[in-house]
Design goal:
By secondary structure, the protein is of the alpha/beta class. The chain is built from 15 helices and twelve strands. It binds glutamic acid. The site of glutamic acid has 13 residues, from strand 3 and helix 13.
Length: 417
């Protein structure tokens, strides 16, 4: 095998290319979609608590806005690069199509380890990001949200900074805000809840039952932890979780509430007493039904794809499978529900939040949950129909159906012939 593609931008471009070829689209469509419409690169000076100045690199990429304003999170992570942000913005375009929300794709990021900053430094960084990018953001231009390393509090600082500059109450410019200030009920849980719904629907199609299904996860952050909660609520059993350098495993099941309680006092799951600590090598070979990557890109490369011992993979993270990894999984008959379908619950409830902000009318929690459930099941069924009709993988189906939708809109808008 040649060099593995590990650059997420190359991975995203390859996915678009394959779908354009499968649909026999004019080469100009690929040209239009392979690069973002714009990438803004900024330097954010931050006064640190000790009086020194640090300058952080930040980005915002707007990939395509045919369907509506840009939408996508802001990532604070030491590995953030321009290419990663571009790839993530591409995935957001297709995720929006799959989710059926009227948004284009965008993404932002800052190259920083947020755990190394104090709260006051983090706040100054968040506000600095908004000041530098103010002209490119807006509730009808480009709407950020949380992603890896950011959360509702950071969105709270960001929207405050934005409104200080605009002088208007345009709270719909950010989603994933605190509920007390314009946020939507159900947004924090939305991505994990959606992952569990997609897993449940796929399990049904595979002729399995949630009650007899075992799961492993990678990551226990926002997405991983809420996925574990809802999988457990739906009757599934989470038996293992991969962390950064090791994994925890208990064949009898890991209880969500108990792990959250442990994390509150210990800050770390690797010393969770009701599970065995196992090396990652052993984790990958565990014989379970479903694996849910919910952490980083490129988690399932060719090597892991060869040894992973599962029937189904539901991608909670963005871009967790390399193209080579994907080919091997396909050859091995392992079903994969792709990120742009599996984790679209976040952007669905972000859409609900945006609507609530524009109307200044807020929904009850059960309304949000019920609407998300319907939206996710519809998105799943649409992709499933393509899987059945064309005998393709879920990923191929998700790209084919979203690129088709985008192509139609771009044609109607006169962007292409
Ligand atoms: N960051 C999330 C994602 O990758 C949410 C994006 C949003 O809500 O705009 O889907």
């Amino acid at each position: 095998m040649e060099r593995e593609i590990l650059n997420p931008l190359e991975n995203a471009q390859l996915q678009i290319k394959k779908a354009c070829e499968a649909l026999n689209l004019h080469p100009s469509i690929y040209k239009l979609l392979k690069e973002p419409k714009r990438l803004v690169e900024i330097s954010i000076p931050v006064k640190m608590d000790d009086g020194s100045i640090e300058v952080f690199k930040g980005y915002r990429s707007l990939h395509n806005d045919a369907l509506g304003p840009g939408k996508g999170g802001i990532r604070f992570h030491p590995n953030v690069t321009a290419d990663e942000v571009k790839a993530l913005s591409i995935w957001m375009t297709f995720k929006g199509c799959v989710a059926g929300v009227p948004f284009g794709g965008a993404k932002g990021g800052v190259t920083v380890d947020p755990k190394k900053l104090s709260m006051t430094e983090l706040e100054r960084l968040a506000r600095g990001y908004v000041r530098e990018l103010y002209d490119y953001l807006g509730e009808k231009i480009d709407i950020p949200a949380p992603d890896m390393g950011t959360n509702a509090q950071i969105m709270g600082w960001m929207i405050d900074e934005y409104m200080n500059i605009s002088g208007k109450s345009d709270t719909g410019t950010f989603t994933g805000k605190p509920i007390e200030f314009g946020g939507s009920k159900g947004r924090v849980e939305a991505t994990g809840f959606g992952v569990a719904i997609i897993a449940r629907e796929t399990i049904k199609k595979l002729g399995l039952k949630m009650e007899n299904t075992t799961f492993t996860l990678q990551g226990f952050g926002n997405v991983g932890s809420y996925t574990a909660k809802y999988v457990q609520d739906m009757g599934g059993k989470v038996v293992g979780i991969a962390l950064r350098d090791c994994a925890i495993y208990n064949p009898k099941g890991l209880d969500y509430e108990d792990m959250v309680k442990h994390l509150k006092t210990n800050k770390n799951l690797s010393n969770y007493p009701k599970a065995d600590k196992i090396p990652l090598d052993e984790f990958w070979e565990l014989n379970v039904d479903v694996f849910i990557p919910a952490a980083i890109e490129n988690a399932i490369d060719a090597e892991i794809a060869k040894k992973i011992n599962v029937k189904l993979i539901c991608e909670g993270a963005n871009g967790p499978t390399t193209p080579d990894g994907d080919t091997i999984l396909k050859e091995r008959g392992i079903v994969v529900t792709p990120d742009i379908l599996t984790n679209c619950g976040g952007v669905i409830v972000s859409y609900f939040e945006w609507v609530q902000n524009l109307y200044k009318h807020f929904w009850f929690s059960d309304e949000v949950v019920a609407r998300q459930e319907v939206a996710m099941v519809n998105a799943f069924n649409d992709i499933w129909d393509v899987v059945e009709k064309y005998k393709v993988t879920f990923r191929e189906a998700a790209y084919m159906s979203s690129i088709k939708k985008l192509e139609e809109v771009m044609r109607l808008r006169g962007w292409i012939q």
